[in-house]
Amino acid sequence: MDGPASVPQRDRVSGVLLSQIDLDAPVTVLWGVGSERSLQLERLGIRTLTDFLLHRPRRYEDRREFRAIRDITEKGMVTVRGRVVAQGVKKFRGGTRSVFELVLDDGTGRLHCRWWNMPYLEGHFPVGLELLVVGRVMELKPRSMNHPETEVVEEGDEPSVHMGRIVPVYPLTEGISQRWMRGRMWSLVEHVAPRVVEPFPEVKAGGLPTRAEAIRALHFPREPEEAERGRCRLAFDEFVGLQREIQGRRRRLQAASRGLPCGGDNRLIKPFLGRLGFRLTEAQSGVLREIRQDMGGVSPMRRLVQGDVGSGKTVVAAAAALMAIESGYGVALMVPTEILAGQHEGRFREWFAPLGIPVECRTGSIDTTGSGGDDGVGLTIGTHALLESGFMPRNLGLVIIDEQHKFGVSQREELVRKGRYPHLLVMTATPIPRTLALTLYGDLDVSVMGQSPPGRGRIRTYVRGRDKLPKVWEFVRGELSAGRQAYVVYSRVEDEGGGDVKAVTRELTGLRKVLEPYEVGMLHGRMDGEEKERVMDGFRSGRTQVLLATSVIEVGVDVPNATVMVIENAEQFGLAQLHQLRGRIGRGGHAATCVLVMARDSDEIRRRLKVLEESADGFAIAEADLRLRGPGEMLGQVQSGLPPFRFADLAGDRELLEFARTAVAAGWRNHEAGT
Fold first, then answer.
1. Predicted TM-score (pTM) of this structure
2. Looking at CB atoms within 10 Å, which of 152, 497, 532, 624 has the fewest?
3. Residue 252, C-beta contacts closer than 8 angstroms, at least 6 positions apart
């Protein structure tokens, strides 16, 4: 490392050399870290020396050169160094408001720094104090900053730690300063980090630095690119840990179980396909070939089928179920909502009744079980109710989970454990970016269906401000008068007070007035199952022309005559969710229109929503959503099953994840070969 000559660093209490302290030792072994300081560090997730070394800087400042104040001729971020030559507090509005201001002089000019309503700072910046100041220049006459970051320059500062280099800036908590954190980190990186070992020595990291080198580069890089290389190595280790777990789980399954013989004999599938009235797409046929091979193989199938909105996954699920039923096994199909369960029940009964196959349904409010016969061969459709102890399927050969992103990984496993290593087919109409698929479903084989069946209408999407609503409703009325139906979607069920976000219960009366004489129904997640089904029956039958709903209609609702969707407060939804919602229209042969109405207008919101105007590719939209919102918000942190990465970036580290996946697989092979 650059800087002053290294000398042994001793803990001043115990006399133990820093270079001899165990990396898993608590931070209290460090000099100056007592009970109060250790609690402060714990708030940052720092409990051990290893935690300390992995405390990631939130950004870096290039302090190799400071800007002379006289050279600041444009607004923007700058770093300057100078002495406080004047300071004081001004009060106004009867003393209820104040501003603390100091003037910094570097010998070339003066910079005014202001903090609003923080009068106590007057005692922290005496005249004569030398300061490093980082902030955005907001005014040029005089040159001024509001609420800049400051750091005191002390006599005898080691230039290699706080000055004259690229300096880390850390996330902090009350009671800990940047100087303390940086100084302590310097000692640890210098004397403890060299003993950091490789966590997965059997996995080759290619051209990446060692873990010890990565930690040094992360905290005290010589160049900005070096910090990124350090981050990449630490992210690689996170991905390797994840892939070892995922691949290990799959290998244990293959070693401990044999697949049930569920390849089928076509005696049910042939008449089923013959009655459909249309030919399968090449994508559907290809996925079914993969499923048949899996279900006739030596290991239980574990397959994820991703299909964009309207790609025909339900038919694929039906054909897979028939393979298992032809082979003498039962099938369980779990879906996230009662609405979707009811819709699937109706459709599968229509498909399977002519074949003599029983279809049962279990939800929180519906239970039609008991008609499946003594052998348990048939199909049971249900919601989370399938996870309850009362559901004990006989002879379970295949588990199908529809809209997997609505369930947690543990729920998937809970249902699978109700059989003896049944085959598993996971389906989602929410296109998943490759990095998320490898992270969440890395133990599954992946099939992609990107081809829509014939006869689907084209969907046009428009972004509009709320001031255009009168014209929007005029357009909706025109579609209704032509015999079509419409969805109107809001993000909330009830008015939560204040703001511009509309709620279905509050807007129902007004919408009925705007669209009279057309019938407007209302649907949201807090209604009981019987009421939901009554509303959906009215909409499916055409008795109701407009359905005012929340995102409860996001998955599975299929009304071919619906050609219009108006989504108000569109900025409240993620791109992938908006794409799912608009997939409810255009399911018949008619052209369809989706209007995204913004309550708030900004360049950022318009840029985000414009992605939907310009693209109908769900996978491209999902990638954009991942970049804009991140995986936690995109999927919902509770249900996402995402590990807590410190360094990995699922939006930008796809190649690194692929590399880790390949490296782990090679490590397993080398281990088995004894090399």
1. 0.74
2. 497
3. none
